[in-house]
Design goal:
By secondary structure, the protein is an alpha/beta fold. It contains five helices and five strands. Helix 1 runs parallel beside helix 5. The radius of gyration is 14 Å and the shape is globular.
């Protein structure tokens, strides 16, 4: 199940008209069913995972795939690992480190301790 506050964050993003994507190192074949099982699939416009065609992060291929399928000019990547940060940098997009769940506070990048803090950053972006 999603971490506390994630559902509210996703709802806020969708209500604000953002294109919301999931880019995970999990296998592409399993991501749709995971999103469906957790009840989050309706909040994602695009889901991409590792496959023969799309390598794991820190390769930026997943992010570039998301950007290719989005009509928006600005993008921000929320992640919880060094691999996520490197992928965002290589894709030349803004990165926000989340320090809930598996994430930890990291020096040198913008951090959000809660989904509410993440929303404040996204809303001002």
């Amino acid at each position: 199940l999603p971490y506390p506050g994630i559902l509210d964050l996703l709802k806020k993003c969708k209500n604000a008209g953002f294109f919301v994507a999931l880019a995970s190192n999990a296998p592409q074949a399993s991501l749709a069913s995971i999103a469906e099982f957790t009840g989050l699939s309706e909040y994602f416009d695009f889901i991409v995972g590792e496959s023969e065609r799309v390598p794991h992060k820190p390769d930026p291929a997943m992010i570039l795939e998301v950007l290719k399928n989005s009509k928006f000019k600005k993008a921000i990547f929320l992640g919880d690992s060094k691999k996520d940060e490197f992928a965002a940098k290589r894709a030349n997009i803004q990165y926000l480190q989340v320090s809930w769940g598996m994430g930890e506070f990291r020096e040198g990048v913008k951090n959000a301790k809660t989904p509410e803090q993440a929303w404040e950053f996204i809303d001002k972006f």
